[in-house]
Amino acid sequence: MATTEIYEELAASGATGLLLRPGGLALTERALSFCSFPSGARILDVGCGAGGTVEYLISHHRLRAVGVDPSPVLLEYGRRRSDRLPLVLATGEDLPFADSEWDGVFVECSLSVANSADRVLGECARVLTEGGRLMLSDLYIRTASGAGKDCCLPSSSGNGGIMTREELTVKLKAHGLEVMLWEDESRALKEFVAQLILSPGSAVSHFWCPIDQGKGSGGELTTTFELIAGAKPGYFLCVAQKLVLHS
Ligand SMILES: C[S@@+](CC[C@H](N)C(=O)[O-])C[C@H]1O[C@@H](n2cnc3c(N)ncnc32)[C@H](O)[C@@H]1O
């Protein structure tokens, strides 16, 4: 199953509401309170799905938010809620915006599913203004060595994959982004998985199967959960700042 199809199915099931990730708007709020953007600040949401965060940023915080996602189906869900939502068809690896155009960029659970985490981070750094903030929330591997990484990739995962905290910090630094906040939010991941399990027709086996057992084939939930537990996956919230270059 293609990466975007998994989220299109999840959105259609209604199992997690408007937002297709752990933590919901509480994590978005946490990042916002750390960053204190003035009203009118320009915010880009990369991998915005059905546009739940974009809608929230505009209506509750008066931010000038725009979302991009490679799924026309998910963008259409957003437009059906409000045809004025600014949603653009694009991938995080190839953002259709000029350099230094955004004060903040959100990437909420979309980095691990992208084809290239490096290219997405490079594009985020490029479009951020100097001193601008990148808000990331995503899965991460909590074993110190990264052991178990291969067996617990979400079936939705592209080559971006799940990283350890150290791996991500190094990648961010390579793109001129310095970590200012890192919080473990693994409780949100547990709650999200429980939400999926309890949803009618349990969407969880599609969402997260070990890759060596066939993606989304279902029917091996016990093994899946054993493998997931062994790799200690967690969820994090991170805010990084684009370094100011002195010439
Ligand atoms: C876990 S969902 C999160 C969606 C949204 N951020 C939210 O909070 O509901 C992952 C999203 O990443 C999108 N995606 C997949 N590949 C991507 C890519 N290469 N660049 C940007 N987004 C991508 C999917 O279409 C999906 O909407």
Structure in a nutshell:
By secondary structure, this protein is of the alpha/beta class.
Overview of the molecule:
The structure is a single chain. With 247 residues, the chain is of the alpha/beta class. The protein has one domain: Rossmann fold, CATH 3.40.50.150. Helix content is 37%, strand content 22%. It has nine helices and eight strands. Strands 1, 2, 3, 4, 5, 6, 7 and 8 form an eight-stranded mixed beta sheet that branches. Helix 4 links the parallel strand 2 and strand 3 (87-89). The chain is globular and about 55 Å long. The N and C termini lie far apart (48 Å). Mean pLDDT is 86; it is low at 210-217 and 219-224. S-adenosylmethionine binds at residues 3-4, 7, 19-21, 46-49, 52-53, 69-71, 74, 91-93, 108-110, 113-115.
Which features characterize this protein?
9 helices; 22% strand; binds S-adenosylmethionine; eight-stranded mixed beta sheet; alpha/beta; single chain; 247 residues; Rossmann fold
Counting structural domains, the number is 1
Shape estimate: globular
Radius of gyration using CA atoms only: 17 Å
| Straight-line distance between termini | 48 Å
| Helix segment tally | 9
Uncertain ranges: 210-217, 219-224
CATH topology: Rossmann fold
- At the fourth level of CATH, the homologous superfamily is Vaccinia Virus protein VP39
User: Which range best describes the helical content: under 10%, 10-25%, 25-40%, 40-55%, 55-70% or over 70%?
Assistant: 25-40%
Portion in strands:
15-25%
Could you spell the SSE succession in H and E letters?
HHEHEHEEHEEHEHHHE
CATH class: Alpha Beta
- Global mean pLDDT: 86
DSSP summary, beta strand count: 8
Structural class comes to: alpha/beta
